[in-house]
């Protein structure tokens, strides 16, 4: 390299060297004339300097683009530069110590003209492969870094354009990788040295021309490392200077090094190369590049590296890596951050999250808050970087159950995301995943405003209302909005399905027969349209089958559920509904076979286990049912215990059905909130709460989400029911005690305690428990029926009639209610009404499933 002894140079030569380092090429040409005037022996050096200046000046003004028109323009534009550089070759150039530099610059010139073979020939003449590491000037560092980069690009072009044998291709790939690795190391070192020189130039102007010692120890980054943003070209002269300083070739080399390793199937080496570059001390020119590298490495670790082949960063290494064929002195290696007090990720999860948080910090720093039109392009570019990072962060955090971290990131993003619908929608989805339902709905409402023609945010809001907020009418409104936004015929209508689901849920919740019948009719029409518009949608077929089941049309329901299963055999809710339809068709053993087969596919699905336990009870196999319910408790611990302890939430494909179906005692439009329909109900609620006061003294709120604890209550109460079937009331009481420790005010617990009193024939105590349950939830049908039967036994037929008629209004399809009402009317002497009730019971009983069809929870997948 042209590493001249500066002690013997003239003042002009020192000034020229300084201008070369700073890229002032027009000034270099002017000073070259003075150099030739001062001494005719400098003719060869002057030719080299002019050729270099013309080449660099052209490349700064014209972007390097691989196109025939660009190559033709470059050949004519660089003709003078080529002539001057050729004059610097030969014996005179060797004596002046510039022949090597001239060959390297000629290779760069040929590359700009698309002459890749000639470029490689010039590198051979320069003996680039045999250069020994030594101390270099700033300008020489950049020339050498770009030379390795250009050689790598030429080899890559040669490999792709010319077919060769497997051995030769592997040999060229190895050489190409070596070139890109050296280019990235030298490029980072050059940028680090440039930062030092530019920082010291104000106090010592001679530094730029001095020889640099690049074997310094690790240096801590200065506070000025984050002073300049290179992401936004409009940020001012400093940003333009940073971009100019790096140059297109150097930037390409820094990004290309790991990519060629991935292309040649050397994934682990690519990961190490990313780590080496990210561990190098940051410079002003590499700040935006650092964002790209961090994001790319995170993506590689997420997509290409499994846990079995993952290796922690720099495990057993110094962190600098090795250079192929290089010296052990490592003069051409970039300086690294000191290892003292440095966090080192221990596993794949920690490294990916760390990389993405670093990338987020870098991307957020460069965002543009101004909404002025002149900043539109810069704002879009910055938002593109931010959203790319947030998309990867979403994949990583959801995969590893770190949704709260994602929420915090999106909350920070809102301050610069005015009008950015993608960020708002992702934020809404993250809130839904974190079960912050009310806040998620408000965010989705904002997303609707930002995309007035997109039905998706309306559908998400509708699902939220149906599934979590229990505001079905509001959800139905959103479904209608989505239907209006759909472009007819563009794609199958999911909005039509959501409209049908909304009407179906309103029918289930309605207490008035006329209103219920109207909603059932609208639901059936909407679901039939949904099936017509998309005959391959298993979900539409499933809900249409459920609608026919609710209407008592079992033949049609079975036909549609079979078609839904033909479309998607592994759909757990379809299998659940199919089993219930079989029980309603008096085929309980077939239903048990369906459930057993489904549990082979979904072994920890609590819904299916719940149905299995009830089928076993129905078939009078209580001992087996006991084992099933005990297994349900074990499954609950496996699914929820770690989550409730604050540990990482477990995920698996078989845990798709962790929302337990309500049993016959626990369904019937249940609500765990206290529902006071009248002043009388309020007084009864107060009485019920006073009954539970003794339990409250030892009650403490369980940690974590509410739903898992309510599921455990239901399992304990089902276990209590099984124990009563096998004549073990004490064990049943123990189960109720366990449930009371979780939530003593549950009306379901009050009802089950009343059932035990019925078993023990303690009728007054049973009556009080059922009154408490009805006070806490007037819509609990089983409690109303049990209270009516208890009134009848206690000789209170009029009160029994009132309770049973209230229950029949809520659920007119329950044969047990009509049978009990028939006995009441018979005692009251209304034999005609009694006969009608018994006839209704007989008519309903053959088509009554082992569990109500409404016990199947909502499903949207």
Question: How would you explain this protein's 3D organization?
Answer:
This protein is mostly helical and 861 residues long. Among the domains are: 346-452, Serine Threonine Protein Phosphatase 5, Tetratricopeptide repeat (Alpha Horseshoe), CATH 1.25.40; 454-486 and 496-533. It has 39 helices and no strands. Helix 9 (138-161) runs antiparallel to helix 10 (166-200). The radius of gyration is 39 Å and the shape is elongated. Mean pLDDT is 81; it is low at 2-9, 202-240, 318-329 and 647-686.
Mean pLDDT over the full residue set: 81
Count all strands and give the number.
0
Question: How far do the termini sit from each other?
Answer: 66 Å
Write down the Rg.
Answer: 39 Å
- Main sheet attributes: strand count, strand direction, barrel closure: none
Which word captures the global form? elongated
Looking at the structure, the CATH topology of the domain at 346-452 is: Serine Threonine Protein Phosphatase 5, Tetratricopeptide repeat
- Strand content range: under 5%
Q: Give the helix tally.
A: 39
Question: Which CATH class of the domain at 346-452 is shown?
Answer: Mainly Alpha
The proportion of residues forming helix, as a percent range, comes to 55-70%
Overall CATH architecture of the domain at 346-452: Alpha Horseshoe
Structural class of the helix and strand makeup?
Answer: mainly alpha
Low-confidence stretches: 2-9, 202-240, 318-329, 647-686
């Amino acid at each position: 390299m042209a590493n001249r002894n500066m002690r013997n140079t003239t003042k002009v030569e020192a000034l020229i060297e300084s201008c070369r380092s700073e890229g002032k090429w027009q000034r270099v040409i002017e000073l070259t004339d003075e150099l030739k005037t001062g001494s005719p022996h400098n003719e060869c050096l002057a030719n080299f300097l002019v050729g270099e200046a013309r080449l660099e000046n052209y490349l700064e003004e014209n972007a390097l683009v691989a196109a025939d028109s660009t190559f033709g323009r470059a050949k004519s534009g660089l003709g003078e530069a080529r002539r001057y550089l050729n004059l610097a070759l030969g014996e005179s150039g060797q004596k002046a110590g510039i022949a090597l530099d001239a060959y390297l610059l000629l290779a760069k010139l040929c590359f700009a003209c698309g002459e890749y073979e000639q470029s490689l020939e010039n590198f051979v003449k320069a003996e680039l492969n045999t250069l020994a590491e030594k101390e270099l000037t700033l300008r020489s560092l950049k020339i050498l870094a770009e030379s390795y980069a250009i050689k790598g690009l030429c080899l890559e072009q040669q490999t792709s354009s010319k077919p060769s044998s497997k051995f030769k291709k592997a040999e060229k790939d190895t050489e190409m990788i070596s070139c890109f690795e050296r280019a990235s190391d030298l490029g980072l070192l050059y940028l680090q040295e440039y930062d030092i020189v530019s920082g010291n130039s104000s106090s010592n102007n001679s530094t730029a021309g001095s020889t640099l010692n690049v074997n310094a120890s690790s240096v801590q980054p200065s506070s000025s490392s984050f002073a300049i943003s290179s992401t936004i070209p409009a940020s001012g002269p400093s940003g333009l200077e940073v971009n100019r300083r790096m140059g297109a070739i150097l930037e390409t080399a820094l990004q290309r090094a790991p990519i060629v390793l991935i292309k040649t199937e050397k994934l682990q080496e690519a990961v190490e190369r990313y780590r080496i570059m990210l561990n190098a001390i940051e410079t002003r020119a590499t700040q935006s590049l650092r964002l790209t590298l961090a994001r790319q490495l995170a993506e590689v670790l997420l997509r290409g590296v499994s846990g079995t082949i993952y290796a922690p960063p720099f495990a057993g290494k110094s962190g600098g890596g090795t250079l192929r064929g290089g010296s052990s002195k490592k003069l051409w290696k970039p300086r690294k951050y000191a290892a003292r007090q440095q966090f080192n990720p221990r596993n794949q999860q920690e490294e990916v999250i760390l990389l993405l948080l670093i990338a987020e910090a870098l991307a957020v720093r460069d965002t543009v808050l101004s909404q002025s039109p002149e900043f539109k392009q810069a704002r879009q570019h910055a938002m593109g970087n931010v959203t790319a990072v947030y998309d990867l962060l979403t994949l990583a955090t959801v995969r590893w159950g770190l949704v709260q971290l994602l929420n915090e990131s999106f909350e920070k993003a809102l301050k610069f995301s005015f009008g950015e619908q993608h960020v708002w929608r992702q934020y809404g989805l993250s809130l839904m995943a974190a079960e912050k339902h009310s806040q998620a709905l408000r965010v989705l409402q904002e997303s609707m405003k930002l995309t007035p023609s997109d039905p998706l945010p309306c559908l998400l809001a509708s699902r939220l209302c149906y599934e979590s907020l229990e505001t079905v009418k509001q959800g139905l409104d959103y479904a209608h909005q989505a239907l209006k936004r759909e472009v007819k015929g563009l794609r199958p209508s999911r909005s039509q399905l959501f409209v049908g689901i909304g009407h179906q849920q309103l029918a289930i919740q309605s207490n008035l027969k006329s209103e219920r019948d109207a909603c059932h009719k609208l639901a059936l029409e909407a679901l039939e349209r949904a099936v017509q518009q998309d005959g391959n949608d298993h979900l539409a077929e499933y809900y249409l089958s459920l609608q026919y089941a609710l209407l008592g049309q079992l033949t049609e329901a079975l036909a549609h559920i079979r078609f839904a299963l033909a479309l998607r055999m592994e759909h757990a809710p379809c299998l659940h509904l199919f089993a219930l339809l079989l029980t309603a068709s008096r085929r309980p053993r077939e239903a048990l076979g369906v459930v057993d087969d489904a549990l082979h596919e979904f072994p920890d699905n609590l819904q299916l286990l719940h149905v299995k336990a009830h089928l076993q009870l129905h078939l009078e196999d209580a001992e087996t049912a006991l084992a099933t319910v005990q297994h349900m408790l074990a499954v609950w611990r496996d699914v929820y215990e770690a989550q409730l302890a604050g540990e990482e939430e477990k995920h698996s494909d078989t845990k798709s059905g962790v929302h337990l179906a309500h049993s016959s005692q626990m369904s019937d439009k249940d609500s765990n909130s206290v529902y006071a329909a009248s002043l009388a109900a309020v007084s009864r609620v107060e009485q019920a709460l006073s009954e539970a006061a003794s339990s409250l003294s030892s009650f403490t709120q369980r940690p974590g989400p509410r739903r898992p604890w309510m599921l455990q209550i239901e399992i304990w109460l089902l276990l209590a029911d099984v124990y009563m079937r096998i004549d073990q009331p004490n064990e049943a009481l123990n189960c109720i005690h366990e449930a009371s420790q979780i939530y003593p005010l549950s009306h379901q617990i009050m009802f089950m305690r009343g059932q035990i009193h019925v078993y023990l024939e303690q009728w007054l105590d049973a009556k009080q428990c059922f009154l408490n349950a009805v006070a806490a939830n007037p819509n609990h049908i089983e409690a109303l029926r049990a209270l009516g039967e208890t009134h009848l036994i206690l000789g209170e037929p009029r009160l029994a009639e009132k309770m049973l008629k209230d229950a029949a209004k809520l659920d007119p399809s329950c044969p047990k209610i009509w049978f009990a009402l028939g006995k009441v009317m018979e005692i009251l002497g209304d034999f005609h009404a009694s006969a009608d009730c018994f006839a209704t019971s007989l008519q309903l009983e053959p088509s009554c499933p082992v569990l109500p069809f409404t016990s199947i929870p909502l499903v949207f997948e």
